[in-house]
Structure formats: C-alpha cells, structure tokens
Amino acid sequence: xxxxxxxxxxxxxxxxxxxxxxxxxxxxxxxxxxxxxxxxxxxxxxxxxxxxxxxxxxxxxxxxxxxxxxxxxxx
Length: 75
Prior knowledge:
single chain, 75 residues, mainly alpha, 63% helix, flat
C-alpha cells in the first residue's frame, strides 16, 4: 500500500536537509539533556549481559555493510 505524502513534504533533491537538520537538533537536545552518561552505562551493561554476544554480532553485520560501501571503514 502506497504511503500518502503530507502536502507540506517536498522533494529536496540530493539529500534531505530538513531531515538532517531535525536529526542534528535532536542529537544536540539529547546531549544537552544530561542523559548521555546514563545511556552509556545502560549500553555497557547490555554488552556485559546476556545480550552482549547478539549486540556484538549485530555490530559486525553493520560494519560489513558499511565496509562494502566505504573501504575506509575498519572492522
């Protein structure tokens, strides 16, 4: 089923500057929120816990995909 596009949404050509700006603003807001350290501890706990192997495997899969597109990416 085709998605209905919002009337205000327009094609921005190469790249989407609006989406990039919104993403960047959200990242800055997250950093400014003071939650980074807590989320980093949660991530470390997950890596050290039962799901650690699954998370590391997923990271390797992602890196393989990027490596195929960008040979500068190191495994």
